[in-house]
Structures are given as structure tokens and as C-alpha cells.
Amino acid sequence: MSATDDQKVTLGNYLALAFAVVFFSGLLQSSEWYGVFDFTTLNGTFGSMADGVMFRGKGGSGARDGFLFALTLVPTCMFALGMINVLEHYGALKAARKLLSPLLRPLMGLPGSAGLAMIGSLQNTDTGAGLTKNLIEDGELNQEEAEIFTAFQFSAGATIVNFFSSGAVLFTLTNADGSMAVPTSIGLTVAIMFVFKIIGANILRLVLKAQGKKVNTQTKAA
Amino acid sequence: MAQASKKMITDVFVEGARKGWNICAMSTIPNVMMAFIIIKALNITGALGALGNLFEPLMVLVGLPGEGAAVIMGAIMSMGGAVGIVMGLFSEGILTGEHIAILAPAIYLCGSTIQYAGRILGVIGTRGNLYPIMFAICIANSFMAMFVMNLFFV
């Protein structure tokens, strides 16, 4: 797979992407029939064992409590990564790349050929880093572009996999009265991370520009 | 590709769920357990309270108690560990659901950067003098995200 390959993106791929956005956004979170299209709804809840306490128990601490708590994360993580695998299989990420590639220049000053590495970096840090290295070697990215792109990848590395394997579970926490504890959605959190990844890359862009100006003035002075 | 599309959707799901299981067994469970041990140690030594007092003035700007700083520090080492710290502090009643909403994107924006310095910056070949700037950007991203998230709950 070359960094610049351009496979045909079908309507089905866009549908898969649209489904991914809706499924994780929390928009359809409900116990009505349309809740079947929402991650948190299908993720469900653990039952209570006695006096409304979950199998993790109440009042634990240390390694033992940590272990039991970590076990409560397992189903969310397996469900989320299972769904992401399905959505990826149906081309959701290919569609995302197609939509994002033309935006890379206006958003971060990067060429569209970085699209595949960008989508790769959202899933796996090493894939992102490896593909970026290839782009540099192929002359697709100059040093400054590579550094801006690196800043994008370094903050919230492998966003999708990391967030869905540990962060998504935060949204299943409940208060003592059984109500949902975290008053925001998975979708908003992912959007905020994505926006700040782009802002971070642009901060580096400004830093590099300022450094470049300094070097130019010094050269002129010399 | 043709071969891949013949797979049953259920098989594809199970393959992904297996990846999830491996991540949990190899990374999440050990990391979260470590975080709970650290919280316990910090708590019984009184260090958690001291940390909370020390960072109170900074964290209050983003609508968090001082102990929220422990989450960000933990995140720089490990994202999964930081989630464990959040859960530990939630069980102790130090963090509320609103606090968790503020922290959620921030954990990832500065998350695992110590490890990623080798796996991203090292592999791509980033110039050494840019390393501190890269770390600073991640921490700035976290604080900006907490600031923005806090605006939703004010």
C-alpha cells in the first residue's frame, strides 16, 4: 500500500462513515427502538448484585479494586474495537481519508498525499510514524511539513484506538442513583480532541515560522 | 480486497473484539491496576492531598480540583493509567462526572507522550530541539481542551 494510493471510495464507504459518526456521537442514545444505533445504549450496563452494588463491590481500594475495576472496562473496549473493525471493513476510514485529504492544505498546510498516513496515525502510532517516514523519503513532505504533521500525531496519538479502548468507558460511569455520571458524549469528546490536534499542529507551524524569520534576520545581519 | 469482503460481518466484529481483549489484557488491566496502587499510596501518605493543594490554583482555572493534576501527570506516562486514576478519584468522591467530562479529551491530548517520543518523534526523526516544543504543545492542547470543556458546564 503506497502512501499516495487512491482507491475508489464508494457510496457504501460514506454510509459506513456516516454510521460511525452517528453510532459514537450519542445522538441516538435512548431506550427507544432507535437506541439500536447508539454505542452507549448497546453497550448496556452491568446488573447489580446486592443492594444495587455492581460486581466490583463498594469501598474497595488498591490493586484488588483496580483489577476488578479494570475488568469492568473489558466489554466496552471489546465492543468498541469490534465495531471499529466492522466500520473499517466497510470502508468508513477510506471515506474519512477521501473527505479529509483536500482539507489538509487549508487546515495544516499539508499535501493531500498525507491523508492515508493521517488516518493510519489515528488508529496506530507506529503506522502513522512509519507512513510519515515513507512520505519524507519519497519527497512528499518537506522537513517543515513533516514536523507539523508530527505535532498532529504526537498529541492524542492513535486517537481512535486509544480513546475507544480506555476513554469510552468513562461514559458508562453511573452516579449512586444510577443516572449517567458524565454529562457529555463520546462524539463531542472525539471532536474536541481532533480540533485541538489540528490547533497543536498550527501552533508548531507558527513556531517554525517564527524560528525561520529569526534565522533569516540573523543571516541578513551576518 | 475481494477476499476480505467475503468475510462475514460477525467474523470481522469478533476479530476486532479480540484485538480489544488483547489490549485490555496486555495494557489496560495492568495499567489501571498500577494507577489504583499509586492512588492508594498517594492517599495513605497524604501526598494526594498535598498535590491537590499545590495544583489547586492552576486547576481551578479549568474547573477542576487540584487532584485533577494527578490525572494529567499520569496521562503523560500512560493514557490507560490516567483513566484508572480518574476512576480511583471518582470512587473516592474527589472527581464528579462534570470533572471527568472536562478531563476526558485532555487525558488523550497529552497522553503517553513519554512513550510516543520514541515511537513517533524518534521514528520520524524529529530534530532534538523540537522535542520540548512538541511536549509543550501536547500539554497546551490539554489545558485548552479542559478550558473549552469547562465552558460547557459553567
TrEMBL record, chain A:
Transmembrane segments: 12-30, 67-87, 151-173, 185-208
InterPro entries assigned to the protein according to its UniProt record, in alphabetical order: Gate_dom
Nucleoside transporter/FeoB GTPase Gate domain mapped to chain residues: 71-167
Keyword GTP-binding assigned: no
The entry's keywords: Membrane, Transmembrane, Transmembrane helix
Entry protein name: YjiH family protein
UniProtKB/TrEMBL annotation, chain B:
UniProt keyword terms in alphabetical order: Membrane, Transmembrane, Transmembrane helix
Sequence ranges assigned to domain Nucleoside transporter/FeoB GTPase Gate in this UniProt record: 27-122
A matching Pfam family: Gate
Transmembrane helix recorded as keyword: yes
Parts of the chain that traverse the membrane: 21-48, 68-90, 102-124, 130-153
Top-rank taxon: Bacteria
Keyword hit for Transmembrane: yes
Entries under InterPro entries matching the protein: Gate_dom (IPR011642), SpmB (IPR052549)
Protein name (database record): YjiG family protein
